[in-house]
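Field reference: sequence -> structure
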Amino acid sequence: MSRRLGQLAELPVTVLKGVGPAKAEALGKVDIVTVLDLVTHYPRRYLDRTQQAEIADLRDGDEAMVLARVKKVAARRTRQGRSLVEVDVFDGSGYLHCTFFNQPWRAKQLKEGTEAVFFGKLERYKGRRQMTSPVVDFIGDKTGRVIPIYPQSEKAGLTTWELATWIDEALERAGELVDPLDETWRDRFDLADRSWAFRHIHVPESVAAAQTARKRLAFDELFRLQMTLVMRKRAFERDAKGILHRVSDGELLPRFHDALPFVLTAAQSRAISEINADLAGPHPMHRLLQGDVGSGKTFVALSALLVAVQGGYQGAFMAPTEVLAEQHHIAVRSFVAGLTVGDDATLLGDRPLRVELLTNRTTAAERTRLHGGLVDGSVDILIGTHALLTEKVEFKALGVVVIDEQHRFG
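Structure field:
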């Protein structure tokens, strides 16, 4: 029977052989508490024995990983009082001098005869090949063409070979894992089976297999995150109360469309219809409008703002830069020129639709005038930058907000 990942989250790491209270405490220091935490503790790199570098072949500036045996260890204090551990290692092709500053425990860890993987940048010092404070990983007696090397906490007393042993046991005992993606979806996105991915990210047949496994597991993480966001969005839209905008019985939007010097494209008309349907609904709308440059996104966005205005509400249009805000202000004013909105305070019962601009360059006097128009409702559409987000900007009845190039706001 296949297991769900959630079931692994219910199993403490102490169910695995060799994980007693002391090791469980050490694992807890690196946030590994359950079996699921363990199997999702992925290797940070791999040692490919068919591609591993030899010390004799390394050049200055190379960033490399070598498997070598410790030949000599010396510890001392520098003139500045810093601890310095110097280690000479040999891989059969040549010697490498490694220096570790302020890591006195390296002298006991890297005893003569110890075999380890050293990862760092090669440099020359007094004619010798040297790495300064390289990353050190111990692989124990692990064999195979590709050896996983895990993030480890040496101070917590964890080693790569211990983690690999426990992960092997966890995967073996877990067996087949439920895959939420059926074969059709996996083929569509060129993804591996979930069980295969977990096995091959930890015990890969090749570096290419590990990369394929990582692609699948990365997809799962992004998919899970996206699903969470979608569910939150739907819950918000379901529970929050929105504005029932007047769409079908308003006159402003039809007048705007009739006055355009061109006919809306099928895509523009479809987008406007879908947005209007949301605006007429009982829940708040949150939509992404996407299109190429020049595809007419501004007309679609302006149509949504006019739906708000024709129902007695106000609209806000926020752009990421002052230049864009000014361009939108000029364009929108030209598009709505000649349009009027109802106003009982005027003799004829209507007034020109009012579009204003607010940026950091707006003067204090102009800001005061704009703030007054927003509060009394005489400003129908306000266009601006993040200046719209200040506390002093208060609307009488804000109905629709459009954010241009939202990703640029951070």
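Note: The chain has three domains: 5-44+158-222, 50-142, 252-409.
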